[in-house]
Fold each of these.
Amino acid sequence: MEYGDFVPSKKNRPSQTIDMAQGCFLRVSPRSTDSVEDFILEEPDTFVPTRADEISKFLADDKQALRMEKDAVQLLKKLEKRDRQAALRLNKVRHPIGIKLGVIISFLLVVAVGSVTYAVSFFVTQDTRSNAEENNLAINSRTASDTENRINSAVSAVTMFLDLIANSKEESERRTVKNLFFDRNRDIVAIYYSQGENGMLFSSDAFLVSHEIEPDMLLAYMNQESESIEKARQGSFEILNASPFFGQSLISLFCPVSGSQGDGYVAFLYSTAEIGESFAAGSVNQSFFVNNDGIVLVHSDFEKMNSGADESSLKVVQEMLGSLVGNGQIPYTDEFGDEYIGAFHRLGIGCGGVITVVKTSVILEGVKRITYRNLCIMFAVIALSILVIYFFSKSLSRPLKQLTEVVNEVNRGNFNTELFDQLHLKRHDEIGVLERSTKNEREILNMVSRLTNKGVTKAVIKKEIDFEPHLKDITVFFSDIRGFTAISDGFKKRFGEHSAAQIIGFLNDYMSRMVTCINKTGGIVDKFEGDAIMAAWGVLRNDSLDWENMRKTSVTRVLKEAAHAEYVKADALSAITCCIAMRYSLMKYNKDAAEFTEKHKHEKNATYKPHIRIGAGLNSGRATVGFMGSFDKMEFTSIGDSVNFASRAEASNKPCGTDILITQDTYDILKNDYIRCKENNFIIRAPNISNEIIVEKIPVEFEVKGKGKQHFYGVVNMPNFDIAKFFSTDEEEYVVDPDCEKAVGPAGPKTLQELRAMLGIETPDFEKVNLDAEENKIQVAVP
C-alpha cells in the first residue's frame, strides 16, 4: 500500500486505532514516558510514514492525538531528510568502479586465461604426444637398425669364418683362424657347424672361462634345440633366447647353409652385452627385442631376458607379428588399463623385431602439471585483480586523465603547459611518483631542448659483464708501427700545428683495417697506445679452470681439460689467422696510401699517407682478465707475464728480421695439428689443411725465467688462406687486390727469406743477435 502501519513491539500494549482516509490507518500505543517519535525511532523498520495533513484532520479533537500529530509531523520531516540524504548517496555512487572493473576484468580474465589454459593444455598435449610418437618411432628405428646391423655383421663374420676353416687344411692353421676370429669377434661365443653327417664346434675359450661355462653345455644346448636345427636345415632362420639355459645374456642363431655335402646349418651363440646397451632402460622409452614367437631376446630387465619371458600377449607384439609392413606404431592399453604408445620394427633377416614403448601418462605428466599451475595462477590472478581494482580504482581515473592530458601536451611540444600545476604531488603511491616524475620530466625536457632539440630520444643500453677478475688461458697480440717517431716528425715538418689531425686521420685509417681483422677472428681489442695495438683472444670465454683442482684420474677433469685445450688451440689459431689477414690489409693500405699521396701531390701543403711496416707478436698463456682501474675510470684488460711476453715478442721482430713472431708456448699449442714438424711426421690431417701454418724457428736462443732456453718462431704464411672468403660480408663479396694477394695464401711466401724479400726486410746476422741482452730479457714466471 501507499502508506503504512506503525506496528508496536510485543512490550507495547495497543490502546487505540485511528482509521485514516482512503482505507489507510495508523495504530499507535504511546507509553506514559514515550512519544511517538521516540517509539518510532526505536523501531524504525516497523513504520512507513503517512501524510501529515490527514493526521491533523482526524486528531483535531483529541489532545493526545494533537501531541501525537506534532510528533508524527516532526518524525516525517526527519524521515524525509533521511530519504533525501539516501538519494544523494545513491546518486553519488551508483555503480562503484571497483565492482564494475572487477566484474569486467574478472570476466575477461576468466575467458582469456581459461581459453589460454585450455588451448595450451590441448595443443601442448597434442604436440607432446606427437613429439613422443616421433621420438618413440625414431628410437625404435635406431635401435632396430643397430640390432639388425650387429646381427648381420655377426652372420657375415661367421660365414667368413666357415669359409676360412674350410680352406684350412692343417689343424694348427684352423686353431690360428679360430683364435684370431674369436679374438676379433668377442660377441660371438660359440659356433656349431653341421653339413651332412659331420659337425664341428668352435668356441671362445676366453668367454667360456670368464663366464664359467663348460664346453659340454654347448653341445647339450645344441642337442636341446633340435627343432630349431631342423628348421634351419629346411632353410629357415631362427633366433632363440639362450639366457635361461646358460644364465648369461646370450641369444642363439640358427642359419641354413649349403655346400658340396648337402644342406646343413650353422648355429652360433651371440652375447648381447654390447647390443643390450641400445636397449638400456631410459626414464621414458623402453625397447626390447622379441623373436617370431614373441619370446624376449634382449630386454633392459634382465629377469625377463633370463627367464625368456613371453610377450606375445602384448597388442603391439601381436600387431608386429601380424603386420604385412616392416614397421609401424600403434596406441594400446595393457591389462592394468595403462595407455601406451608402441612402435615396432621387424628385422630384415625375417625373424623377430624390436619393440619400443612409452607410457602416455608419463609423457603427459608435465602437461597436467602445467595445466594445474595455470588454473591456480588464473584463480589467484582473478582474486588479486578484484581486490586491487576495488581498492585503487577510485584513485586511478582522475589522476590518469590528468596525466594523459599532460602527456598529450608534452607530445605536442608544450613542455610548460599549465596542466602540470593540476598534478597532485603529495600522493605517496605509484601515481604520486608518476606525477612527480612527470613534472620532473618537464625540467629535463626543457634542459634537453636547450642543449639539443625537442623530440630527442634517450636510449639506455645495458650490458651484463662480470666485474670480477679471473685467471684465463688466452692468446695475446701486440703490434707496433716501425719508425713511428720518424713518421710523426714528417707530419710535423709538413703540416706544423695541423699535424695532429693528419696523424690521427692516418692512424684511424690504419687501425680500422687492423681492427677489422681482429673482430673477424673473434678477438677483443684491449687498448690503443699511440700506434700500438693490444688485442686478446679468449678473454670473454666462459671457461672455468676448476678442473685443475680435480683428481688427475677423474673422467670429468680429463674431459674438461681436453675441451679447455681445444678452446686455447682455437684462440691461438684465430690470432695467427688475424695476423696473416693484417699482413694483406697492411699491403693494401700501403697501396692505397701511395695512390692517395700521388693524387694530392700537386696540392698546396699536400696531404699524404706514409708507407709503413709493422711488427706483431703473439703469446699464449695464463693472464688475469677483468675490469681494472678506479671507480671513476675502469677498463677491461689483461695483465700478467704472458702479456709481457707477447709484448716482448712484438719488440723482437726487428732483431729477428720478421713481421710476425710467436712464442714457444703458442708454437707448442699449434704444432701437432697445423704446423708440419717432427711431432706429426710432417703430415697435417685433411680437416686441418685449410688452416696450415708455415713457421720457421729463429736460430737464436734466449732464457725465459722458469722455462729455460726457448726460441721465437717467425710466421711465414698460411698457404691455404682464402682472402676473399675472410673479408667478404653477408652483403658484399670482397674483391681481392691482385697486387696484394702475394702477401698471404697460395701466392704468398714459402720461406722467411721470401717473406723478407717481399717486405724489404734485411736478413739479420743471427750470430750478432743477442735476445738475452739486458734490454731483451724476458722475465716469465712458471704458471
Amino acid sequence: MDRVHGLEEPLKQPLKSVLGPATAKVMAEHLGLHTVGDLLHHYPRRYEERGQLTQLAELPMDEHVTVVAQVADARLHTFASAKAPRGKGQRLEVTITDGSGRLQLVFFGNGVHKPHKELLPGTRAMFAGKVSVFNRRLQLAHPAYELLRGDSDETVESWAGALIPIYPATAKLESWKIGKAVQTVLPTAQEALDPLPPSLREGRGLVPLPEALLKIHRPHTKADVADARARLKWDEAFVLQVALARRRHADAQLPAVPRTPRPDGLLTAFDDRLPFTLTEGQQKVSKEIFDDLATEHPMHRLLQGEVGSGKTMVALRAMLAVVDAGGQAAMLAPTEVLAQQHHRSITEMMGELAEGGMLGGTEHATKVVLLTGSMGAAARRQALLDLVTGEAGIVIGTHALIEDKVQFHDLGLVVVDEQHRFGVEQRDALRGKGKQPPHLLVMTATPIPRTVAMTVFGDLETSVLDQLPAGRSPIASHVVPAADKPHFLARAWERVREEVANGHQAYVVCPRIGDEEDDPKKAGRKQSAEDEAEKRPPLAVLDVADQLGRGPLQGLRVEVLHGRMHPDDKDAVMRRFAAGETDVLVATTVIEVGVNVPNATAMVIMDADRFGVSQLHQLRGRVGRGSAPGLCLLVTEMPEASAARQRLNAVASTLDGFELSRIDLEQRREGDVLGQAQSGARTSLRVLAVIEDEEVIAEAREEATAVVAADPELRQLPGLRTALDALLDDEREQYLEKG
C-alpha cells in the first residue's frame, strides 16, 4: 500500500469516523459503503433539474423512488376507526404535481401535524417513498420529504447549482441524506490518487480524477456530468482490463508441455472414420487450438458456439491430439446427466478407438472413462486406476475429478463445459494435477457479445463457431398467449400430438419441480386478480405432467425429469427418452445443457416469461437437432404490452444467439451477466455499460496490455496499483477468477 505523506490514504478512512455512527451503519449494511472512497464512488443515478420535475406519469411500482414536485393541494380528513372511534382519526391527503402527472401522498395519525404545516400549496420539495396503488391511483404513504426553499443557506449549499443529484437510495436512507453525507466527504476527493497513467489521461483529454468526482456529485451543467462520466468510465474499464492483462501476462509466463499429434495416430484414425466433413468454422477453430497446443505456454482459450454448432467435436479432436502426443485429457461437465451424456456421445463417435486395451480395440485406441460422484465403488476404483497408470487417455466427469484422490499419469488438456458454472478455484485445482500446467479449453453455448467476452473472460483468447453443421433444421418459434387466447394453448397440445403421431418426441419445460414445501407466510395474504397472474407460483413439472397425462396428452407416454431425482433414475429416464420409449418429457431446466435427442422435434415452455432470454435460447436448442424441423412454443400469461412479452417476441423472432444476448444484456443490464459479485449493491461497474461502451473497453484493453507489457509490476504507477488493490479485494478477486 502506498502511504501518502506518511498518512494512510484519506479515501481509506472508515465512514464511521467521518459521519454519524447511525448513518455509517446504514451505509455499510444497505449500500455496501464502508470507506470515504466507497461513498465518493457511489454516483448519482440521475439528476433533477430545478425547473423540471420528475415524470410522475412514469413511476415504477413497488420501487423506492425520489421525486421533485410541487404541492397542488392538501386536505385534512377525519374518520372513525377502531383506534379513534369518535371520528378523531386524522388523514392528510396531499396531491403533488410535476406538470406530467399527479401523485397522492397520505399521512395518518400523529404523523399529519408537521406535513400539514409545511406542505402548503405551491411548496416545492423532494419526496421519497415506495409507490403503491390505492383505489386505482398511484400513491406514496408516509413519504419522507425535504423542502426545497431555495433561501436557507443549507439547502442552497447542499443543492448547489441547477442539477439536483438523485442517489441510489434505500428505504432506510433517502437520496438527500446520502447527498449530505457526500457533501461532507467531498473535500477529500482532492486527495484521490489517479489510477490512469498521465500520458493516457492527457492523450485522451480526460479530466483528472479529483475533478471528475467533484463534477459527478456537484455538477453545474450537463457538460460537467458528461466530462465526469467519460473519465470515470475509463477508470473502470482500464483498471479491470489491467487486472485481466496481468492475469494473461502471468499465465503466459507459465511453462507447459507442447502437444503435437502424431502424423498418423489416433487423430488421423478418428478423422478417417468421420461420416461427414467438418464445417469451415470447425476447421478454422481447430487450427487455432492446435497452434496453441503446440506452444510451450498453456493455452487459455474460450470456445463459443451456438447450441449444436459442433463444439463437442472440436473439443474431442483437441483431446485426441493430446492423447496422440502422449498426454491425457479431462473433460469437466457441470452435472452428472451431462457427464454421462458426453461420455456416451464421445464413445459412440470414437467407436473402436475408445476401446483401448480391450479386444476389438484398434492399435491407436485409448480408454475413455467416466468419473462421477454417484458411481459404485468398484467402477470408481477401476477408473482411478486407469487414470494413474495412463491406460485411460480421456476422462469425462463432474467436479468429482478435482478431488484429491484423483491422480493423473500426465494431464495435458482440461476441457471445461459451460464455463459459467465453473469457478477458477476448480480450474486451478485441476491444473494442479498436471506435472506442468495443462492447456485449458473452456466451452460455452451462451453467446457472449464481444465486449462481455473481453470483460468477463478477458484472461482467455476467444474462438467462435458460428455456422451450424449441415443437416441441421431450422426451429420455428411462436409465443402462445394463454391468457388472451386460450384456444392457442389447446392448439399447442394438438401440435405436440401431431409430432408424436409422426414418430417424433417432445419436451415440456416448467420453471419448478412441484414438491417444494409451500411457504406458509405467503399463503395467508389476499391478492387482487391482476396480482394473482403475476404472483401465482410458477407452474411445476409434477402438476403439469399429471394434468397433461389426464387431459390433452392422454394416451401418450409422459415422463418427468428434474434435478432432485436420484442420478440413476435421471439417467434411466433420459435413456428411455433417447431410445424413443417415451413420447413427452416434462422437465425442469436440467435439460438446458447438452441433452441430445435428434428425434425430439417439439418443445413447449410453460411460463416462458419466468426464464431469461439466453436460457430460452439454450432450451430451444434441444429441438431440431435432427433432419426434421423443430418447433418451440413459448407459453405465457403475461399481457400483450408487458416487457416480458416483448422479450419473448424477441426470442421468437430470431435464432441468432448473439443478437439475443445483446437484447438480454440491454434488458437485464450487465449485473447478472458479470456474475453474482456484480449484481449486488457493490457492482464494480458503476458507470460503464458493457454494450454501449464497446469502444472504451476495446481501447482500454489495448492500453492495459501495453502498460502491463512495459511494467508488469506497475512500479511506475502507484495510483493504478492502489486502484487495483481496491478492485481486487476478495470479492472482486473471486469474481475475476470465477469468470
